[in-house]
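The instructor's notes for this session suggest beginning with a concrete chain rather than abstract definitions. Hand out the sequence below and ask the class to guess, before any prediction is shown, which regions might be ordered.
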Amino acid sequence: MAGFTLLAALLACVGIGLGIGWATGTPAVGAAVGAVIGIPASFYIVYRTYRDL
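After discussion, reveal the predicted structure:
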């Protein structure tokens, strides 16, 4: 379940970055920035969710 949470958080960040990049005319850059932000954010979300186990 932690892997699914990790993947879902990463894809959400990449999707948000892609949407912002698409709105500004550079979707590839937006997706890349979303991935750079999404990797540590997804690890943090998994940590916060499963830290009590």
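Then share the key points. DSSP finds two helices and no strands in the chain. The mean pLDDT is 96.
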